[in-house]
Amino acid sequence: MSTAAFIWADRLAGYRFTPEHPLNPRRLQLTVELLQRLDLIGGADAPVVVPRYPDAGEIEAVHDVAYIEAVRTASADPVPRAGYAAFGLGSEDVPVVPGMDDAARLVCGATLPAAEWVMSGRVTRAFSISGGLHHARRAEAAGFCIYNDLAIAIRWLQRHYGCRVLYIDVDAHHGDGVQWLCYDDPSVLTVSLHESGAFLFPGTGFIDELGDGDGYGYSVNVPLDAHTEDASFLECFGALVPDLAAHFRPDVILLQAGCDAHALDPLTHLRCTTRLYERITRATCELADRHCAGRLIVTGGGGYAAYTVVPRAWTLVWAALRGLEIADEIPADWCRSVRLESGLDIPHVLRDPPDAHTPAPRRQEIEANNRRTVNAVRQQVLPLLTGWGLAF
Ligand SMILES: [Zn+2]
């Protein structure tokens, strides 16, 4: 069993745009309620840690001052202004709403203590469930993301501990913001497995995006076919990530565990189950144990089936982080109250049964395509790994 910090305060649910916006913070509260109901958070082994506000320097380590100023102005006076579009503000994805600066800062201030608690050795793992805003760029909001809490944590890890960071992103969308922010940095290896940009926002994350300058070879992408299922996703992860970790030798691993690759997610076309998130988290824990004394920081991310998927997927992530084998059954009273709130049928088990969703059409073709993709990635990246001075 590992000690793990859970970063949470109810005000983190204040990161919300409009009532109709797909990023619904109820998903966070429901996950916390389920974890509490299952008695999985709190106590010496699983402390709940409150977020803090980052200082200006921590945000400015990643974002341009002019952009931060635009977010602050928009937040205080949320009326349409001509200059906002250049910063990605006021779009359908990132509408301008009151208090958005404060809410976005607090999310960064949740992922930072996750890093602090792990690096200080108070815990081995930490879960910043509200974090994972991986699309935000240096001077541009994108894809529901204002400030990039992941990149801000990476800069903090570098500045305070000189860390080499292995960043793994299994959100269904390409982890573009983190990739571009670290694109020329050889001390950060970014690995993103996602639905191919040929089908899905943000339209990037192809295998030839390998990094720039000194960072060439430190950006790795696995664009998956639409309708990819658990087995193929896991096969690709297993064919690549352990080798990358072994050769990169990270000081800490940061995992973005967005759960929108699930078959019920309304925004993507992958067909995974909640089991994927337990398996990926376990596999990443093993890598952290093998290479960096267990140090693993996990964030949330995407996940738009707020009632039927997210609480189950992230409960499995948290249990796996703690090294717990938890029962499948979800308390009936929790399911009942979520059903009443949402009007949806809520599964009574954490792990979707294998036949929960209709099988992907052309399953074998999809698996073969993904295998070809991951082999091509290996062929491109492994010679570069050798270039790092390590025999492969
Ligand atoms: Zn996503």
Helices, strands, pairings?
Blueprint: E1 4-7, H1 26-37, E2 48-49, H2 56-60, H3 65-76, H4 100-119, E3 125-128, H5 149-161, E4 165-169, H6 176-181, E5 188-195, E6 219-224, H7 230-248, E7 252-256, H8 275-291, E8 296-299, H9 310-322, H10 332-342, H11 363-387
Parallel strand pairs: 1-2, 1-3, 3-8, 4-5, 4-7, 5-6, 7-8
The chain binds zinc ion.
Word description of this protein:
The chain has eleven helices and eight strands. It has an eight-stranded parallel beta sheet, with helices on both faces. Helix 1 (26-37) packs across helix 9 (310-322). With 392 residues, the chain is of the alpha/beta class. The chain has one domain (4-387): Histone deacetylase domain (Arginase, Chain A, 3-Layer(aba) Sandwich). The chain has helices at 26-37, 56-60, 65-76, 100-119, 149-161, 176-181, 230-248, 275-291, 310-322, 332-342, 363-387; strands at 4-7, 48-49, 125-128, 165-169, 188-195, 219-224, 252-256, 296-299. Zinc ion is lined by residues 171-173, 258, 260, 301-302.
Essential attributes:
392 residues, alpha/beta, Arginase, Chain A, 8-stranded parallel beta sheet, 11 helices, 10% strand, globular, binds zinc ion
